[in-house]
Amino acid sequence: MSMKGKALYTFQSENKEEISIQENEELVIFDDNSVDGWLQGENSKGQRGLFPASYVEVIRPRSNSNLTDCSISPVGSPGNDSSYFPSAPNTPFHMQQGYYDDDDDDWDDWDDSSTVVDDDGRSGANGHSHQSPHSNNPNVHYRAKPYMERQDSISSSRKGSMVGRNLNRFSSFVRSGVEAFVLGDVPMNAKIAESYTIEMGPKGPQWKESPTPFSCSIEDPTKQTKFKGIKTYISYRVTPSHNARPVYRRYKHFDWLYNRLLHKFTVISVPHLPEKQATGRFEEDFIEKRKRRLILWMDHMTSHPVLSQYEGFEHFLMCADDKQWKLGKRRAEKDEMMGANFMLTFQIPNEHQDLQDVEERVDSFKSFGKKMDDSVMQLTHVASELVRKHLGGFRKEFQRLGNAFQNVSQAFMLDPPHCSDTLNTAISHTGRTYENIGEMFAEQPKYDLFHMLDKLSLYQGLLANFPDIIHLQKGAFAKVKESQRMSDEGKMDQDEADGVRKRCRTVGFALQAEMNHFHQRREVDFKEMMQAYLKQQIAFYQRVGQQLERTLHMYDNL
Predict the structure, then answer these.
(1) Residue 118, phi then psi, degrees to nearest 5
(2) Per residue in 345-374, is it b (16+ CB within 10 Å) or e — as a string?
(3) Annotation-wise, does 290 bind a ligand?
(4) Which residues form a coiled coil (predicted)?
(5) E strands along 404-473, which residues?
(6) Whole-model pTM?
(7) H helices present in 166-205, as ranges
């Protein structure tokens, strides 16, 4: 429930997630439970965002028997019950409000609150069995979740010489768990349940290829109903090449998987799903467009050496039993190798890399990514405009030209003594030919431009992920420099500073591996995109030329 507050001090925002407040300014506070010392609210200018809890006091309503009064207490004082959001530390802030279900449907038929019980009747950790789930992927193994201390309780026991933490606890560097990993705030009382290997390739660090590569088809979008027709949805047949056994998935199943991927793989550019749409979800054009883009999304997933090995992805692709589906879904949602723990899963090469060189490579990729993003957006705009012309302008212009030729033919028929039926027929046929060409232009985008736009949309999403991923590496670099400065000043042991540097290497290797994978896929995808577009353009204009040649021959015998 929103409540009023007043700023005790002036605070100047430093990023887009924060808002500035002035001393004595009246505020609206959306929730007085602070998150790592930050509140969300609105200032007197109507701006919404975060500000430090210790900078404000909350005006609390207080009720007596016949009198309503207000009490004022600083946020975070003993009178204020401060707590944390119950979300994972790497959950994006906008996602903590719950997921929007595109199918406008509840989840009761797809999920429940059941608990997996061992054979002896004891529940496993976090609601699932102590036994490892069976998996067909030899590289991914899961175990029961151990007790994990909260990161703030661990860090509070550190000495005062420890490297400082970012003030903004909502930054991606903090939420992802990379800060905690780099500073060594990761409990080491459990085995590493899964492993992803980074190896040195000809162009630098790269993900080790999956030992069992596969592909997956998405076909046959079918309209389905349930609850006696009350609920309607589209089901897709998903067939992995592992076993060629199809499973049927709705968009919300893809959406669930996508959000699990976002939570877990913080240093990997997870491809965006096709956009959601509130209306027209059952129109043929929209269904076909979504299917095309889901196919591209799936192709990228299966080609990624890390994402394709994820146990939750395998469960999505291969589980056909409803009961097992629910159990596997819960197991994925209870995955402990998230945030800072996920960084422990990387096996990096022994080769030495100078952090300055790594920083330069990252900066170079950042500049490249910005330029590519701009060029992809420009091409998307041009291609979209060309589609609009194909569907509208070009079709109309050719139809107008065809109609004009038809009118000439009709005019020639008005004076029979001087009328040439052969010429009139040829001119009339020319008019119909250009009308047909107009229709051909209107149909052509679905053979070439639509597919180009699909691919560009995929890459817009991939490129949009990299600024946040690069921010993780930049944050790690900053901690290395800070720790070395503190060591030089005698405020930190050199062994501790070396540990920060070593863990920063892990982050650097992972980012470089992802950068190299992006470049590898980019070359393959854009080669295929350009070849497919040019082949379709050649075939299109050949068909146009053939129609015009046949029409031309009608004038030969005049």
Answers:
(1) -65, 170
(2) bbebbeeebebeebeebbeebbeebeebbe
(3) yes
(4) none
(5) none
(6) 0.70
(7) 172-175, 178-182
